[in-house]
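ARCHIVE CARD
CATEGORY: sequence design from structure
SOURCE FIELD: tokenized fold
FIELD CONTENT:
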């Protein structure tokens, strides 16, 4: 009697690799046949040990959406920020539908509003468009204070002895190097330096900045007013509210 457990079936994954050269970064698509994304990460790292991975673009090569389905990518819990991929079927088609008749509609959401859309000919093209727009999206979406809160969440995320995530964090799957996540923080806001952040960003940390309701600038501390406004020290002392 064979007591060996059957191996999990292998599925194709597209892993987008970024390799730095003298002129910037070149992107390479690595096709991995793996059990899951964590297994695909391991294969990509072994094949290209010096590369960074573009995780927002990487996906299962066979992934697709059925009619009426939608996929949320990097979406917040309130559904106000992020991207939505919808499978779009033409309303009127004479006879059989050709592959080119179908498309994926991608929506970029900022603050509860759709600010941009893209009709992609394939799921792969939809994820690649999100990847191109993701950097600018995050720079608008995450303030320095928000990055501080995310950094503390990352500090609570378990990692292996080798420094790899032991569970998913945001859009980063399990198995990603923690240093890759650090680089994402720095790409969102150039004022955020992982080496200066420390293990936990508390109230007295230099990165903790709060917007003033009057002048709009960020300050290390603010004063609360009866009407709910929060003022920096200069505006509070000069009675600007």
């Amino acid at each position: 009697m064979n007591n060996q457990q059957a191996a999990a079936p292998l599925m194709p994954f597209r892993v987008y690799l970024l390799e730095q050269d003298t002129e910037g970064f070149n992107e390479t698509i690595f096709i991995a046949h793996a059990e899951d994304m964590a297994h695909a990460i391991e294969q990509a790292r072994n094949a290209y040990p010096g590369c960074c991975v573009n995780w927002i673009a990487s996906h299962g090569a066979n992934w697709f959406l059925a009619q009426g389905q939608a996929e949320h990518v990097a979406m917040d819990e309130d559904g106000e920020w992020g991207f939505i991929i919808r499978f779009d079927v033409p309303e009127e088609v004479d006879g059989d539908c050709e592959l080119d008749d179908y498309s994926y509609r991608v929506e970029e959401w900022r603050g509860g509003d759709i600010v941009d859309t893209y009709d992609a000919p394939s799921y792969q093209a939809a994820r690649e468009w999100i990847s191109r727009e993701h950097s600018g999206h995050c720079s608008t979406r995450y303030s320095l204070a928000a990055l501080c809160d995310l950094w503390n969440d990352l500090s609570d995320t378990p990692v292996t002895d080798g420094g790899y995530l032991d569970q998913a964090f945001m859009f980063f799957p399990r198995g990603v190097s923690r240093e890759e996540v650090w680089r994402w923080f720095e790409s969102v806001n150039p004022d955020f330096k992982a080496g200066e952040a420390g293990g936990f960003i508390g109230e007295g940390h230099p990165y903790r900045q709060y917007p003033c309701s009057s002048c709009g600038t960020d300050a290390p501390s603010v004063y609360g007013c009866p009407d709910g406004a929060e003022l920096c020290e200069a505006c509070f002392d000069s009675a600007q509210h």
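CARD ANNOTATION: The first strand starts at residue 11 and ends at 21. The chain has four domains: 1-61, 64-141, 142-194, 209-241.
SHELF: design records, drawer C
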